[in-house]
Amino acid sequence: MQTKTWCAVVACVVAATGCAGSAPPEGSHTAASPSKAAATPEWRLGKYSTGDGMLQMVIDRTGDAGKAKLQVAGSKDIVELTASEVRERGTLIGQVFKDPKGARVLFVGTHGHLVYLKNDRDELPLRRDGDASPLGAATIAGAPPAEVREKSASEQTAERLSAIAVTKRFPDIKKEDAGKLDQVAKVIGLADKGMFVAFKRGERPTAKWSPVPGRTMYSGKLDDPKQALAKYKAELFNYLSFKGDELDGWGLQAAVTDSTPADGTPGLVWDVGSSHATFVTLDGGVYEVSYGGSDLTPTVASSIASWPAPLQHSALGPGEVSGLAELGLVDKSVAEPVGATQAAWRTCVKKSYETGLKKELAKLDKENIQWSARSARKKEAKSKWETDGPKACAAHRGKMETQLAQVIEARGAERKALYEKAKARAVAIGLAK
Fold it and tell me: How do residues 4-30 score in pLDDT, each as one tens digit?
């Protein structure tokens, strides 16, 4: 109405004065033109074509967020598209738009580039050719079907084992109870035939000895077959670490030389995690079995005589004894002597460091030599002390080996008794004979 009125006024002025070249008032012209702020952003609507010009289309994103409409030139179909995030290693890289059948049609990257996915396969980059009129109602409309993600092999294994896991069948039983021999005996007495499994070694065995549930022992090679722990496939070693020139960590630790049970070893799936399961053998041995290398199968041998021997692993180190005591799995009267010997060894080693190596390193700091030479000599001194320094504490280490062997033997006797009960249970439920 305002524009028509303005035109009528201009016509009168021109007719009266003959001033055909007079310009209209600037304000009236602005009011008559659409403002730039009201224009549709280019990224929302436009004509596009592939780089080779073989395909042209209109893409309309003026509707709801996460939606788009697309019409390929020459087609009567206006297809509704629905967006979903695309991530690469967790980082958002764009949105993929799918048609109602679930086929990918368009990719819009976070940097603004568009790719047409012909037949949900060929990736054809698009370029904007110009403006377009908004598309009408979609002739092919609807949301794509929900995406069904295929489960990984690990997820499938975890799902299969969860169905027979002890902590699943008996909610009052906890993962840490795997180390309690009385609890293991209780579960064996309650478990049905379908809960028992056999360990199956793969080409890449992935089971680790875990006497403290949830904590696996160090693995290593046996350097001293004369050690008291050698018969248990383990070895005690001196753990020493430095922070600069300061002795930062030190203690006696044990490592197992082998931690994989024999093929066919029977037991129970105690607990299941996303990447591994806790496996408890019928003699109370505890292992963490990672998915992918080894497996736990329902094919338990029907003849007890063919079962692998019990007590395949029984090694314990000072840390394991302490861990078992913390969980109440061994009596404190068993753990305290081991802890006292550990403390005595630590005191002895600390004294050796303070009176020997520390003074030697301080002396090197005062010498007028190049930094590289000083560093090399310090490294040599530390290496020599790591071998010779703890020798003064050999008596404490020997005592530790004896104590650990005693603890292992005592627990081994309990595990043998448990194994006999398990065999009787296997016969009673028809698992084996």
Answer: 333 333 333 333 334 333 333 343 333
